Known about the structure:
By secondary structure, this protein is an alpha+beta fold. Helix content is 33%, strand content 19%. α2 runs parallel beside α4. About 6% of the residues have low confidence.
Amino acid sequence: xxxxxxxxxxxxxxxxxxxxxxxxxxxxxxxxxxxxxxxxxxxxxxxxxxxxxxxxxxxxxxxxxxxxxxxxxxxxxxxxxxxxxxxxxxxxxxxxxxxxxxxxxxxxxxxxxxxxxxxxxxxxxxxxxxxxxxxxxxxxxxxxxxxxxxxxxxxxxxxxxxxxxxxxxxxxxxxxxxxxxxxxxxxxxxxxxxxxxxxxxxxxxxxxxxxxxxxxxxxxxxxxxxxxxxxxxxxxxxxxxxxxxxxxxxxxxxxxxxxxxxxxxxxxxxxxxxxxxxxxxxxxxxxxxxxxxxxxxxxxxxxxxxxxxxxxxxxxxxxxxxxxxxxxxxxxxxxxxxxxxxxxxxxxxxxxxxxxxxxxxxxxxxxxxxxxxxxxxxxxxxxxxxxxxxxxxxxxxxxxxxxxxxxxxxxxxxxxxxxxxxxxxxxxxxxxxxxxxxxxxxxxxxxxxxxxxxxxxxxxxxxxxxxxxxxxxxxxxxxxxxxxxxxxxxxxxxxxxxxxxxxxxxxxxxxxxxxxxxxxxxxxxxxxxxxxxxxxxxxxxxxxxxxxxxxxxxxxxxxxxxxxxxxxxxxxxxxxxxxxxxxxxxxxxxxxxxxxxxxxxxxxxxxxxxxxxxxxxxx
Length: 619
């Protein structure tokens, strides 16, 4: 009737189903038994003030059991019957000092194994209990009860496989524990060795660069956060019991308003403390440049909040106005930027400064001098800064190496005589594997030459196998004839590469062409059947599979490179590649099953052999 109130209850006839659901609560059964029985054991120690550590034994080949033993409250036969055997029954629901409260974790082993045992000691009596999986969700059988002089406690013994994943989960779980409250045998634990960043009444925050993500730790259980408290910072937040909520399986946090408020408080406290750390670290920097790098790094960690840091009573600027040019010697193209200012966070740790440069621009010959100087001095700099020395903000670059432009010119000067001596050798730009070097003597047995523009266009191919063993020479067109007179065997780089393309295409076998003509489905079918080629009767298919197995990948990659190079050189190539499936047209069923060839390869081979035998009249 309208307004009638009805209390919701359990259907007695459905209790078996409900217990089965609760038994299979966990998505990670291995981690569940590690977590539930270890925290139950420690809760038992807390209940009686036991200072002795709980004892955990990791499964091995000789002892394939996961064992947890405590020396706390213990359990009598009555406790087993009235509490341990009942889903939802718990002695911890009225306290925030202990982890368990749901009355489900003690049955978690049944999600991992069909049977495990308890040895329960209390007040001079020891009970041996077998717990097994049944249609009702679980069944307990008291095997034996006898007198004992051992202290109160419970020993849980669960059959377990000594796998690598099991031991990794043991390590990940216990690393957040205090080593004084647990003893783990048969395994070393990588305990959390983090510095405490925040220490408050409700929570402590520890930072460890070795953490894979951020966690909230409550009651010795680490719950991974969906996202870090702060971008770039992995932290473990140890909270007081009851300050966050978790899902019934205890595998994840439940993001209720309580959980969110706790995380927001932890984030605010961490940001405040990290800013203090940052200020202390920046203040201790060796020079202005290192202070800039530290400030940029901390700003990234703190979420690009543009905190205003100071060094030696000066505010660290976001930009420097002393820049004129930024040169990147490792690039062949677009390597010079004209700038009036530069973001401090972009100052490269492998950069250097060129001082005393008064030119209106940095010409290509001046850049060549820079490269030559770096090569002669064996220096590795990714960026070269040309600055206005008189600007006061230039002090922020004091930590970078500084090279004087006049010294660079002197060091890289090529001596020239007004009267050319007899037998003086011409100087050429020769590639030394990293930069173009000016030399007069080099190996002239195999020489390839080209002008600067041609070499720039070939910068992606300068490391080709076809160029290895050759001396690469760069010079302007007006010197080509003299080089050819001096070194008759020298060849133009484009002529050499054109010959390489032609030789590659002319020397391709029919089998290689077949591989390149394979369509998408053809390729997948060949990959699935190649391991069964010795069983095939069709000689055409057998030949294709044999060549595919031997060198198909190399042929396809080499051919792809040749096409790109040919297009660059303006060579027209009749491409062999096609997307049309045509190799197995006589065996239509193979195309129909192309998505699962590897699974039915043997059956397809039988089908193809029967079709081929029918074709040649054997059947």
